[in-house]
Amino acid sequence: MNKPANASLFWPRTRRVFREAFSEFMGTFILIMFGDGVVAQVLLSDGEKGNYQSISWGWGLGVMLGVYTAGYSGAHLNPAVTLSNCVFRRFPWKKFPIYALSQVLGAMTAAAVVYANYKSAIEFYEGGKGILTVPGYSDTATAGIFCTYPAAFLTKTGQFFSEFIASGLLMFLIYALKDDANLGAGNLVPLGLFFVIFGIGACFGWETGYAINLARDFGPRLVSYMIGYGPNVWRAGDYYFWVPMVAPFCGAFIGGLLYDVLLFTGESPINSPYFGLYKLSPGLRREWDGVSWSDERGKNDDSPV
Fold this sequence. Notes:
The protein is mostly helical. About 65% of the residues lie in helices and about 0% in strands. The chain has helices spanning about 10-45, 50-70, 80-90, 95-125, 155-180, 190-205, 215-230, 230-240, 245-260, 280-285, 295-300. The protein starts with 9 loop residues before the first helix and ends in a 5-residue tail after the last helix. Residues about 290-305 have low confidence and may be disordered.
């Protein structure tokens, strides 16, 4: 069997090893470039070059194009999505830290590029060179370009619940779009995700900015801290920063769980003996020895996964 002509070259070999990580990095990079970019344009132009609906469009486009970019890796672009796939879709747990790190680094890099692009506009909007302020501390704050800050009236419970609901919807609908045994979206999954993100932003985005993604919020927040916005990026909203780090994991888990419990007929712990926990017990493993998931599925479901 002939090897590709470039098989022995250093970079093709390196790329082959790290291609999944590169895919998640670049997919998340594209997501944040469009998302943070549209927020910057709307805010810094005082709404003359866009409005809230523009922001929903921008984030939807960012997700769609990010998914097209990162198709090789499965285009998770979100640590909460990766974790849910580990739990419900047998995605290898050993890949979780690689995917999550790639997503965060991609988001950080994109945030830095957006800042470099809009640096002069930010200084003009803030009122002078070196002035960088955070929502809740200034009427001309621009830190919201990079990460999310909650509405002032929200309680901590309200903050968490808003992110939880939006993240649950996201994960539920991702599984719906990917489920060919349901209606599914096939090759149109990226377009479907555009409408999902647009809808979440248009209907549930106002209160917290719908981060629904640790990488999307924490990565750019860390960059904003590093470029001079200071410790208020962590203090704002009564130390809101941890909510978009934790709530998306909780919401995505429940969203994935609900889809599998109520609708999914494919391979999932929900459709396995004892919800997959039988693997932890030698006795239960012997009891179910020789009964594969495909055997059980064949008795009840003829549709493909």
